[in-house]
Fold this sequence. Notes:
Helix content: 55-70%
Shape: rod-shaped
CATH architecture of the largest domain: 2-Layer Sandwich
Structural class: alpha+beta
CATH class of the largest domain: Alpha Beta
Largest sheet: 5 strands, antiparallel
CATH superfamily of the largest domain: PAS domain
Oligomer: single chain
Number of strands: 5
Distance between the termini: 115 Å
Amino acid sequence: MRRLAELSLRGKLTALILLASGVGLALACTAFIVQARFSFRADNLEHRGGLIRLLAASAAPALEFDDQATATDLLSRLAEDDGVDGACIYDAEGKLFATFERTGADMIALPATPPPAGHRFTGQHLEISRAVLSGGKVIGALLLRANEDAAEARFWRFLGIAFAFLLGALALSYLLSQRFSRWVSDPILALLGTVRAVAATKDYSLRSTVVREDEVGQLVGGFNSMLAQIESRDRELGEHRDNLEKEVVARTSDIRQMNDELILARMRRRPAPSRSRSSSPT
C-alpha cells in the first residue's frame, strides 16, 4: 500500500484497474480450471464405464463355461488401450479367474477379492468394479483399473491455455487502463498545472479548461469560480489601495497647505520692530 501511495495519479488508476481485472480474471480462471478438472475425470469415467460394460458382457460366456483361456485372452486385448493399466475377472466365489497387468505400470497389486460395485479414484488411477450377469444371475465380477494420463494431459493443456488467456487479458487490461486512466487523470493533471502556475505567478486570471460535466468537470469549474472570486476581490483591493493612496496624497497636500497658511498667518500677526529701539543715542 505504501508503494501504491507513492505512485502518480495515473499510476494509481492503472494499478487499481489491473488489480481489479487480475482478481476477477484469476477467480474466473480458477473456476474454469476446477470445472475442467472434474469434467475431464467425468469424461474418463464415462468412457471407462462403457468399456467395462462391454467387457462384462463378453466375459459372461467364459465364466459360464469356466474357460480361463478365453477370459485371459479377452483381458489381454486391453494392452492396446494405453489408458488401462490392469483388469481382473472374479468367479462366482470371488476368486481370481483371469488377470491383466500392464508391464511397467506404476500401480499397486490388483485385489485378490472383488471390491464393492462402483467406481473410486485411487491416486492417479480410476477403478471401476461391476458384477457379471447371466440370465439375471450374478456369475462373477469384473474390475478395471484405468490411469488418468490422458485426462491429465488434457488438463495441463487446458491449464496452459487458461494461463495464456490470463496473460493476454492482463496485457489488454493494461493497454485499456492506460487509455482510460488518462481520461480521468488528464483533466486533474491540467488542473494541478493551473494550481502551480497560479501559486508561482500570483496571476488569478488563469483558468483551467472544463472538458466535461462529470465530477471532475465540476471540480475544475469550482476551482475556476474560486479563481474568479479571488481575482475580483484582488481587483477591488487594488482599486481600494489606489483610491486610498490618492486620498492620502490629497490629505497630505491639504495638510501642507494648511501648515503653510498657518505659518504665513503667524508671520503677519508678528509686530514690526520699533525704529527708536533700533537707533543709537547721539
